[in-house]
Amino acid sequence: MGLWRKIMRTGRVAEPAPARVPGEAPSKAAELAGSVQIRHVDAGSCNGCEVEISSAFGPVYDAERYGARMVASPRHADALLVTGPVTRNMEMALRRAYDAVPEPRLVIALGDCARDCGVFAGAYGVAGAVSDVVPVDVEVPGCPPEPEAIVAAVRRLTGR
Ligand code: SF4
């Protein structure tokens, strides 16, 4: 009962829903009908982007209210959310994860490292940016991107 009372006292903490950021959605996103299941792949991140993803799907930014949900397997996913530069050790794993996502599949490259290797460009263990390994549909700049930017990218896919 103590926990229940605490929940009731705290109430809803989610920020009011901001207006949608205008931006062209990938054409494949229309086939997903406003609901996108996302599998996160850390291809070599420093973990900064993961902290912001946690915030974006946490109670304050609440990305799920726009129709996005994290899932545990690429076989259950519509989209991959990829962070970090693609390290040599993760290159094959990322290709396999991409192949496991059923069509129509989408890829979000999240953070500067995913877009162009960022601060890790040229490092000996880096195979390349995400687009060097799998096709990318949406890019989210930033190091790391703020939760608002992650939510905005997700809303481009769900259209909500
Ligand atoms: S973009 Fe920045 S926060 Fe994200 S993985 Fe790269 S260095 Fe880390």
Q: What is the CATH fold-level name? A: Rossmann fold
* Domain count: 1
The residue fraction in helices comes out at 25-40%
User: What's the β-strand tally?
Assistant: 7
Shape: globular
> What series of H and E elements makes up the topology?
HEHEEEHEHEEH
Radius of gyration: 16 Å
Task: Give the uncertain stretches in residue-range form.
Answer: none
Q: Distance between the terminal alpha carbons, to the nearest Å?
A: 36 Å
- Main pleated-sheet profile: 5 strands, parallel
Give the name of the CATH architecture: 3-Layer(aba) Sandwich
Number of helices: 5
InterPro entries: Complex_I_20kDa-like, NADH_UbQ_OxRdtase-like_20kDa
Cofactor: [4Fe-4S] cluster
EC number: 1.6.5.11
Keywords: 4Fe-4S, Iron, Iron-sulfur, Metal-binding, Oxidoreductase
Map the helices and strands.
Elements: H1 2-10, E1 36-42, H2 48-56, E2 68-70, E3 79-83, E4 86-87, H3 88-100, E5 106-110, H4 112-116, E6 126-128, E7 138-140, H5 147-158
Parallel strand pairs: 1-2, 1-3, 3-5, 5-7
Antiparallel strand pairs: 4-6
Helix pairs in contact: 2-5
The protein binds iron/sulfur cluster (SF4).
